[in-house]
Amino acid sequence: MKSDGLVISDRLLRSWLRCPRKAWQDLHDNPSRRTWHPQRAVQLGQEQRCLSRYGAGRGLVMARGTPEALRGAAAIQGLRLLAREGRFQLRGRIPLLLRRDDAKSRFGPWSYVPLLVRTGRFINREQRLCLAFLGRLLQGFQGQCPPHGLVLSGDGACQQVSLDPLQPQLDQLLEEVAVGLSQPHPPELIAERKRCAICSWRRPCNAHAAASGHLGDVSGVGAGRRRQLIRLQIHTIAELARSDPLRLGQALAREGHPNQVDHHNALAAALALQARSQQSRQAQRRPDAVPSIRNSLTTRLHQVPGVLFYDIEADPDARENYLHGFLIWTRPDPGAPLNLTLDPTGASPQHHPVLCLPHQGDGCCWRRIHGLLSRFPDWPLLHYGETERVELLRLARRAGASAASRETLQQRLMDVHQLLRQQWVLPLSSYGLKSVATWLGFRWRQPNAEGARAVLWWRHWRRHGHDHDLRRILEYNHDDCQATRVVTAWLLAQEQSL
Fold first, then answer.
1. Which CATH number covers residue 114?
2. Residues of 410-448 as b/e, b for ≥16 C-beta within 10 angstroms?
3. Which residues face 236 on adjacent strands?
4. Is the per-residue pLDDT at 129 higher than 70?
5. Percent of the chain surpassing pLDDT 70
6. Edge to edge, what strands does the sheet with 350-355 contain?
7. Using 50, 70 and 90 to split pLDDT, how confident is the model at 346?
8. By CB atoms within 10 Å of each CB, which of 6, 116, 169, 250 scores lowest?
9. Among the ranges 207-216, 383-392, 441-450, which has the highest mean pLDDT value?
10. 363 and 270 assigned to the same domain
């Protein structure tokens, strides 16, 4: 493959910065191997809302990116441009152009600067270089490169980014992309495999990682740790599984901090155990887990009349928790051993969702949740991951709940994910709820169910009010609560088998 005539788009450039293999696949691979992921749609929707709020707040009349818009409109939205750059072409869509009246261009006594919307708290390298790329496109469009671009955050704040210092980096990046995309084979998998979870090429890449024993698939091994292991001549999961933990710990200490030998020995033992579990495809109990088991889940649930399983659905971009779901499991026989896998009443445990609309406020939402929890005093509140604990206590504090009430609530909360990690090593690259519950045989009713898809349903329901979108959300939350119950039941069954 030759790079002559290659068209580098802003999307292709962004893909390369995130993962060169993804960019190569976007350009060359069979599109039928792709799997749509809702994250991109969520991001585009957030971008459009930010731009609309920004324009409305400044009274801007936004023209669409058409030839008529070039007559000096104050703002041009979605302009698509094409420019020649050496032996390849540049192509891109600029989310928003803002008119600058203090600089001339080939259109008249004004020029434009590009604006893009960022996600995350800080402007990163990807966003800076993408903005420089848009500035390069704009140079061919108006006859000069703008001295700066603008980055808009979700709260409406705009930051300037100087584009001139970024031009050498952009030139180097474009050459790198052109050479990499002209190769006959895709680049290697990225070391930070967590990014692959939201990629449209995740299935073929996951299959390649599994076949090659990629170290990034070991839970606890990130990009830096993988480089460190490779320097120690450990290249695959199988090699890590065969390694001697004591020798590995000593080697890690020499690579890192020699005065932290105990820390590195514990780390080496944990990594080797995780690799052995994944290599054998068998769950393994942690060597020091028995005391913590006896003093945590079984003991706390020994005589409880029932259990509440709790899961939140949230829109992180809007910073709102729109649904608090509770699964109410009543113990059928107080004297019998606790068995969460049994159906206690002949019917499924009741799902009680608390829908919280933004205009209702924290006080209303907390009163409804507190009223539900008060009906089941002293019942443990089990959740998967720290988000539920943090957000529920934060809601109680914002709503003015007393310190004693918040302390009582905190004592009721039990993190199933934390208990699982303390006690077990599973043959999984991820310990997320979807991964663990699926491994245990649980299936969500919605195909390809995930949080980003639920966010799309929520936003669509808020905009159009279709009942089927709300039903999907409630069903998805119900399944999340049931999945938490399944994982808890498995943990209890393992304890009771000792």
1. 3.90.320.10
2. eebbbbbbebbeebbbbbbbebebbebbebeebebeeee
3. 214
4. yes
5. 93
6. 350-355, 320-330, 306-315, 381-383, 413-415
7. very low
8. 169
9. 383-392
10. no
Examine the fold and report which residue of 262, 282, 302 is the final residue of a domain before the chain moves on.
Answer: 282
Q: Which amino acid is present at 348? A: S
Q: CB of 273 within 8 A of CB of 425?
A: yes
Q: Domain check: are 275 and 311 in the same one?
A: no
Task: Give the pLDDT confidence of 78-94 residue by residue, as tens digits.
Answer: 888 888 877 789 999 98
Give the model confidence (pLDDT) of 179-220 as tens digits.
999 999 999 998 888 888 889 999 999 999 999 999 999 988
Rounded Cα–Cα distance for residues 38 and 448 (Å): 10
Rounded-to-integer distance, Cα 201 and Cα 22, Å: 7
Ramachandran bin of 393, using left for φ above 0, alpha for ψ from -120 to 50, beta for the remaining angles: alpha
Residues of the domain holding 461: 292-496
What's the whole-number mean pLDDT along residues 392-416?
Answer: 96
* CB atoms inside a 10 Å sphere around CB 41: 15
Answer for the pair 165, 49: CB distance below 8 angstroms, yes or no.
no
| Residue labelled with tokens 């009246």 | 101
- Judge if 268 and 311 occupy the same domain: no
Torsion, CA 243, CA 248, CA 252, CA 255, rounded to 10: -90
Same domain? For 304 and 270 the reply is no
CA distance linking residue 188 with residue 112, whole number of Å:
39
Q: What's the mean pLDDT in 305-324?
A: 92
- Residue of higher predicted confidence among 105 and 71: 105
Does residue 266 share a domain with residue 226? yes
Contact, 158 vs 150, CB < 8 A?
A: yes
Cα distance between residue 30 and residue 8, in whole Å: 19
